[in-house]
Amino acid sequence: xxxxxxxxxxxxxxxxxxIQLFNSLKKSLKNLKKAKIVICPPFVFLPLLLKASAFALxxxxxxxxxxxxxWQEKGAFTGEISPxxxxxxxxxxxxxxxxxxxxxxxxxxxxxxxxxxxxxxxxLFPIVCVGETKEEKKRGKTFQVLEKEIKIALKKVPKSxxxxxxxAYEPIWAIGTKNSCSPDEVLTAILxxxxxxxxxxxxxxxxxxxxxxxxxxxSQNAEEYxxxxxxxxxxIGGASLDVKEFLKIVKIAQSF
Length: 256
Ligand code: PEP
Hints:
Elements: E1 2-7, H1 15-26, E2 35-40, H2 46-52, H3 55-59, E3 62-66, H4 83-89, E4 93-96, H5 99-104, H6 109-121, E5 125-130, H7 134-138, H8 142-154, E6 166-169, H9 183-200, H10 203-208, E7 210-214, H11 219-226, E8 233-236, H12 243-254
Parallel strand pairs: 1-2, 1-8, 2-3, 3-4, 4-5, 5-6, 6-7, 7-8
Helix pairs in contact: 6-8, 8-9, 11-12
Bound molecules: phosphoenolpyruvate (PEP).
């Protein structure tokens, strides 16, 4: 079953628009049997949207995620949100280490590892974003970057929780640029990640790990990625805010 994650980023600007966007998706997401959809709106819209999605709807293959969380359970951390607060709302997934957070908010691999650890302890499904910059790609460093990011992230993950971890290969140069990574290149990166996980953990874990691709996915190129059995789904930014586009991608995901 393919997993489609919608990253709304810091959009839209009002509750009214958020609920409108969600309501336009809701009907089509009602009877999902062959794909899992995770909507990740800004924190402030989560309670509203969780309330608007009936329990039955969530059961049908729709879930909610947040775009970040903090690495401590509670305390004097002004402006932060803990994994426990998210679970309490009914949130099931959390995006960690998105390149925008790494770059703009200076999140390090070690911080991401702490967030991953606590998210798993809190029973969230973490979606860990990894990927190289344009410069790193030019210098032939893609595999090195992936290895470093994944090794550090997984260091504190207990074996009993590893099946909950989802990795998103998101080459930074492909995010929001209309310059998507070719399916062949994505596949090469994902096979590298599986090999690495097999080395770090074991073959079965590597085979079962859900690995997504993200970076300028639109309805016209979604099938090329989803058709690959090694690509378990997509992380979608820009196109997830366009109802028609997003629903087209969901439809394609359901055909695999
Ligand atoms: C993202 O933000 O993770 C992303 C993949 O964005 P976009 O689809 O707009 O490239």
